[in-house]
Amino acid sequence: MSGEIISLVIDGQEQDLSWIELAERLNRTGHVTAASENWLVVRAVQIFLVQIGMLMLEIGSVSAKNTKSMIIKNITNASVAAICFYLLGYGFSFGDQGDEFIGWGGFATKGEMFNVNQSYHLAHMFYNFCLLNLVPTIASGSLSERTNVVAYFVLTLFISTLVTPIQMHWIWSKEGWASYQTRYLLDTGALDYAGSCVIHVSGGVMALIGAIVVGPRKGRFEGEKASIRMPLQNVTYSALGAFFIWSGFYGINMGALLTFQGDTAGPLGRIAVNTTISATAASLVVTILARIKEGTIEPYSIVNGICTGLVGSSAGCATMTTEGALATGILAGIFYFGISRLLCQVRVDDVSDVSPIHIGGGLAGILTAAVFTTTETYALAVLDSGDNTPCGLLYTCNGLGWRLFFANLAFLVTVVAWSTLAGLGIFLPLSVMGLLRVDKMTEDVGLDFFTITAVETIDQFSKRKL
Questions:
Q1: CB-based burial label for 263 (10 Å; 0-12, 13-18, 19+)
Q2: How far is CA 402 from each of CA 125, 351, 390, 452, rounded to the nearest angstrom?
Q3: N or C: which end of the chain has fewer CB within 10 A?
Q4: 115, exposed or middle or buried, with CB in 10 Å at 0-12, 13-18, 19+?
Q5: 0.85 exceeded by the pTM?
Q6: What are phi and psi of 450, to 5 degrees?
């Protein structure tokens, strides 16, 4: 959103408002333009392309015997997330009667906020559903080829109802404790423009917890070898998936504007360029590191490098300088490569490398956003507070640079802690109840045969073969 200040006469008094403050007042009075609603809906549909990309990326990373299970998982994730967010999640995120920790109101599209301006809030709900829907897909991406379908259902239910909506409220609502609108956190609030931390770090942490609790696939780590390459289906699927994700990320980062500003100059061009630079820089860094360290160039590493750079771009896409976007991509690529290889060394089996992608990229993004943001770009994209406009560590803005950095750091630590607790609270009970991992025969034969096709039970299959 543009932070440019405009002067208006309201109720006989002249008031200075930013574009976001004006949009909120128009929301409450029902005068949001059709252009803003169209903007949100179109960008949300573009974001949904990421789901196609993630599905193709995951299918390319597993063996053919588990293809159907991946399709069912991702479609079920989207279906469960949509209903949960409609019933409760949106109210916990953006309900107009909440406090600093959680929203309240607007459940199932009921309440005053929908009575005043239903059309815009429905568009806003749809946009945020498409964004939130990324989290359960990320969190479940590390569990492929050995996880019970029931576990995916439970995971998506809790993420879409409570875990992510509460985090979204913290930073993107007008009451949240980390929001730039309240400025409770170090007098600046945190800067996570399109979700590097609240969406990607959170999903990556839960994916990592899940991979640890469920354990590696059979044959993934054996003997003294650090890791054994498992059968992969088709790198072409993963490459096409990466391009779908790349296209969708323009919707994620541009959609965070939330309102269409017409003739007013905004940060769209900066968002597009920064997103592109970060993605390509990370891909090149991963390619170079793979060549130096391992003597080869793997297509999967290049694809994952692109995704990592895209994740890193989201936090500061509208506020960073282009040099900052380049630094973000470089740092994201290094983080991804290091985390991915470290997980292999400690024998954590993340099938699609989702935790290195989203933790590495998100960590780079949330930190560099608070280093390479200028007061001018922050004022244009977020909020113009005059002499109190924050900036990154590299710039001078009345001492607010270090505050923004430590606000982002505090928000990062909080999201990691919250997501860790959520991941443990979901995966450990499922494991104890025997609902997390499938049995050895199902894993050997493939989830498609037993849990998806279900032509006969495992006992029937065993007796028939005997």
A1: exposed
A2: 34, 38, 9, 53
A3: C
A4: exposed
A5: yes
A6: -90, -55
For 38-87, the pLDDT digits (tens) are: 889 999 999 999 999 999 999 988 888 888 888 999 999 999 999 999 99
Q: Please list, in sequence order, all residues whose beta carbon lies within 8 angstroms of the beta carbon of residue 155, skipping any fewer than 6 positions away.
A: 136, 139, 140, 206, 210, 426, 427
Residue 438 to residues 141, 168, 466: CA-CA distances in angstroms? 16, 33, 21
> Helix, strand, coil proportions of the chain in percent (round to 5)?
65, 5, 30
Using alpha carbons only, give the angle 200, 204, 206 rounded to the nearest 5 degrees. 120
Report residue 457's pLDDT band, with 50, 70 and 90 as the boundaries.
very low
Q: Which residue is listed with tokens 């406009």?
A: 389
Of 281, 270, 289, 290, the C-alpha closest to 310 is: 281
Residue 10 and residue 16: Cα distance in Å, rounded?
Answer: 10
Can you read off the two tokens belonging to residue 314?
Answer: 């989201």
Give φ, ψ of 309 to 5 degrees. Answer: -65, -35
User: Residue 124: CB partners within 8 Å, gap ≥ 6?
Assistant: 40, 94, 258
Distance between CA atoms of 118 and 109, rounded to whole angstroms? 8
- Residue 17 DSSP code: E
SS3 assignment, position 446:
coil
